[in-house]
Known about the structure:
The chain is α+β, with helices and mostly antiparallel strands.
Amino acid sequence: MNYFRVIAHPEGRLELAPVPTQELSELVKQAVRQVLLEYQDQKGATEEELLKLPQVAALLGVSKQTIYEWKRQGKLPAHKIGRRVFFKKSEVVAALSAQSRQPLRSRVNRRG
């Protein structure tokens, strides 16, 4: 099969010129790479890493029960997919950075 490119001359004349197979192959590879890069950029912008409860507990260095409590108190937003609960990594990191301003862990009144 032969492939051609159209060459437009300044005087308005069009010319068909053959495209070597190797050159066509490189053009297709470049186009595919470009589309894949654009897709990955879009995917990265929209896709969020989801963490399971044990991963969040390990990341924050607290027990699973503490994560349940923070979820119940609204200190750590959770998202249900089906019957499972997930946490967005960005929200966990935001809660962790907020901890420096206002601790996530409630102070327990100690009797002395």
